[in-house]
Amino acid sequence: MTSYTPVEEKTKYKEDTLFRSARDAAEELGFVVTAGEGSATFDTREKEVATSSIPRLSYKYTFHVETQGGVLSIKATCSKNSTTNESEFKDCGDDRPKRVVEFQEKLHKLTLARAKKNQDNSPDWSHFGEPEESDSDKTADKADKGDKGDDKSDKKNDDKADKADKKSADKDDKADKKSDGKTASKDKDSKAKDSKPKDSKESADKDDKGDDDSKDSKDSEKDTKSKGKTASKKK
After folding, report:
1. pLDDT value at position 233?
2. Which of 20, 84, 89, 93 has the fewest CB atoms inside 10 Å of its own CB, making it the most exposed?
3. How far apart are the C-alpha atoms of 75 and 62, rounded to whole Å?
4. Which pLDDT does position 83 carry in this prediction?
């Protein structure tokens, strides 16, 4: 006997798709399917497996499957006899024969594989009975999609143009700043040049003035000496 856990799994498949997949999977594994109490339920016919000939020991098992709401539920029932009473079968308890556990795993995997395949191949009836879309509506939809595409293209072009204008403006600002810097430097040099001749001229004027003063002083001395000589002669 082996420890046992029933299957209880929420799937993405529809209830009827999951039911057909589980039923077909059970039949593929050799089980006879009998209708259950509900439309999303079935059972397999009981099977008996001998485990010993002397004494005659065996066990019986079935699978109960439900797919209600897209939830896959698989439970294995089991009963067995004993050496003290070969004709009486009692519940297996929490454990199950290894063979039963392996069959449940196969049924589980095969059901999901079939459900995936069946759902991919099944037609979509969700819009059944609705009026078909006219050619004019299809044309309008295509036109709307085209307009949206044009709007996106225009937006991209506008963004590129804005970026280009911004780069151009930044370059112009840098050029203006550079030009202003050069002009300021030239003005500074020009002022410096203008101040040098002025200083030189002032210095030259001072020197000329000094020479004139010296000349006047010498002339005065000569006049004084001349006057002194004249006065001496008169005496």
Report:
1. 45
2. 84
3. 8
4. 87
Query: Mean pLDDT score of the chain, rounded to an integer?
Result: 77
Q: Give the residue among 74, 77, 7 at the shortest CA–CA distance from 41.
A: 74
- 111 closest CA partner among 9, 24, 5: 24
What does the DSSP 8-state code read for residue 70?
A: G
Q: How far apart are CA 152 and CA 147, in angstroms?
A: 9
Structure tokens at 195: 């101040």
Number of H helices, E strands in the chain: 3, 9
Residues in the chain, total: 235
Q: How far apart are CA 20 and CA 5, in angstroms?
A: 23
- What pLDDT does residue 35 have? 87
3-state SS class at 7: strand
pTM of the model: 0.53
Could you tell me the domains of the chain? 2-121 (3.30.310)
CB atoms near residue 25 (< 10 Å): 22
pLDDT band at 16 (very low <50, low <70, confident <90, very high): very high
CB atoms within 10 A of CB 18: 27
pLDDT (0 to 100) of residue 232: 46
